[in-house]
Amino acid sequence: MNLKSVLRRLPSSNATRFAITIIFIGVVAVLLWWRGPSWSAIGDAFTTVRWQWVAAAVGLNLASVVARAIAWRTVIRQAIPPPYPSNLLVFSAFSVGLFANAVLPGRIGELARVAVLARKLPKRKGLWATLVGTVFAHRAFDLVPVVLLIAYVVVTAKIPSWAITSLVIFVGVGSLLFTFAFVSARRPHVAKVDHMGGARRIVAMARQGLGVMRSPLGTTLAILFQCLGWTCQLLAVWAAMRAFDIHSPLAAAGVVLLLMNVATVFPLWPGNVGLTQIAIATPLRSSYGIAYAQGVAYGFGLQAIEASVGIGVVLLFLAREGLSFAMLQVMPSADQAEMRDRADDTEEEPDAETARAGVPG
Known about the structure:
Largest sheet: none
Radius of gyration: 23 Å
Number of helices: 16
Order of helices and strands: HHHHHHHHHHHHHHHH
Number of domains: 1
Shape: globular
Distance between the termini: 58 Å
Number of strands: 0
């Protein structure tokens, strides 16, 4: 193997990804050691946790997951023909995706939830790519509750100056993705994809997943359930504050929710642990006078509360769906799944021809 081929494979190798992850974790660990709080003070903050508020936060997070799963099912119903997946199956797939995003780097959870549905739905051409399109549309609808939350926070809360730039970029990228999805869904649809090349075929099938954007009623319902999910999550963040004896207003919970989502938009390591706590504790200290140690402890607690919903529910569903943690790490990409579909189609064609040949006249 020559040097050129080695260099070409290096960016996608597991060793390179592991090294990059270790570097990022090391940088965050140095920042926490250099500018971080007293770890004994963080431990003290956990001794005063009020568990009734923790239970309330867990329940609200569960309600948020249910609402967002219903929004995704609304998107799916506009993208594929019947039979449609059940509410329980969609909730299962969505929960598996949350679990994978929490424990694995990257956004592998988006493919994991597609894999759960693809295993249970009747086999169809381009199903995988279509479901990926529904995930994209579902994520694009997050723009509406995010903009509403930002508007609420701008009017009622104190936003650190450094956070404004991050939020502007966050909304800008979200707006571009939403516009792209809307325009792609509205373009004339090409029905026949059998003779397209691999890449064009995948794009065409993925566009079918954006079909909800051609339905005013479906779009409205999906957005409403997404907004309900974000509202429940906002209340969960506020309830977790009470659990850690932080009595800041609901607007402060809005700031935390926004910056937590910015910090975890692309997890370079599981949950971006460390970076997420810094993003949560810094605005609480600068804008609301919360001790940095208390804010970091709250950040760890909040992330644990959100993970408990995913892990607790998903461990049951992983067994139910016949998936394992190792399988989540090797989810195929859309083009790999499409190649499998086309290979299966090729295998089926000779049988069909043989069957037709056996019919007289």
